[in-house]
Structures are given as C-alpha cells and as structure tokens.
Amino acid sequence: MLKICIMKRICLIMAALLVGLSSMSAKKTKETKSDLVGIWQQVRNIEHGDGKVNIVFNPVLKIVEKDGTFSTMFVNSPQSAGTITQKGTFAVQNDSLYSETVKAHFMPDKIGLTLPIKYHFTDKEKDVLILEFENGGGNVVMREMWIRISDKHIRK
C-alpha cells in the first residue's frame, strides 16, 4: 500500500514537471528574435550652416518586445507622466523589412492598419536605426531615426 502511494506521488510529480517544462518551452518559441527588440528614442539631425550636425533627442520612445508587440510613448516633461500613443504587434519579414499592425492608437482611424516599414542600422552595434514608411496611404515617405536606449553603462 505504501509503495503504491509513493509511486502515485512520483508519477504526479513527474507529470507536473512535464507540464511545467512544456509550457516554458512553448513560451520560448513565441519570442521574436530580432535586432529591433529593445527600447528606442527618436532623434533628429540639426544641420548648421558651417557643416556641423547636432543630434536632438525627441521626447518619443518606441518599445519593441520579444513577444512580438510594440508601443510608442510620448514623454511630456519631467514633471508629468508620459502618454502611450500607440500599441500593436510587429512581424519581421527579412533583414530590411518588417510590419507593424496597430491595435490601439490615440487617433482611432489608425487602429487596424498594417504598415510595412523598411529599416536598416547605421552602425555595427545596431544601436542607430533608420525607419522608412509611407504615411497615411499617400506617396509621402516618412523617415525616422532612432537610437537604442542601452544599459551598457550600468555596473553589474
């Protein structure tokens, strides 16, 4: 009787471990492996007449998650909270094209749109990102520059 009880417990523990391990591996397969994953801040170049270029950091953040979701946030000021301006999913087609599908947006007419976006990195560390896409279905091509927000300098 004792042996049967011990065997049942062992089988129950093994079944629980098997279910737990399979759910962990299922979560890992859903992660998107992409150099786009990370937190990005939008920047722009200001060219001066003397040939010098300054980079100006815009108060806009893009968060690209491993689970295939993204969001964009406007950071109003140091004295107030930021505002999430859009959320959605993304899918990488190849090393120069991905698409964003908007699930929530501060402008309701943008919800449901899928936007193909050309992208490339300007440095070998892949910390400077250029995005190009058509805005609003017209022929106007928008170009944005983003810099990865990094934790390289945090002491570990």
Task: Give a structural overview.
With 156 residues, this protein is of the alpha+beta class. It is built from 1 helix and 8 strands; from the N terminus they run αββββββββ. It has an 8-stranded antiparallel barrel with strand order 1-2-3-4-5-6-7-8. A hairpin with an 8-residue loop joins strand 5 and strand 6. The termini are far apart. About 4% of the residues have low confidence.
Topology:
Elements lengths: L1 H28 L8 E10 L5 E12 L4 E6 L8 E12 L2 E9 L8 E8 L6 E7 L6 E8 L8
Antiparallel strand pairs: 1-2, 1-8, 2-3, 3-4, 4-5, 5-6, 6-7, 7-8
Poorly predicted runs: 23-29
Number of helices: 1
Walk across the major sheet and give the strand order: 1-2-3-4-5-6-7-8
Shape: globular
Can you give the helix content as a percent range?
10-25%
Question: What does the average pLDDT come to?
Answer: 81
> Could you tell me the number of beta strands?
8
Structural class: alpha+beta
Please provide the ordered H/E string of secondary-structure elements. HEEEEEEEE
Report Rg: 22 Å
* Beta fraction: over 45%
Largest sheet: 8 strands, antiparallel, barrel
Q: How far do the termini sit from each other? A: 54 Å
List keywords for this structure.
46% strand, eight-stranded antiparallel barrel, 156 residues, single chain, 1 helix, alpha+beta
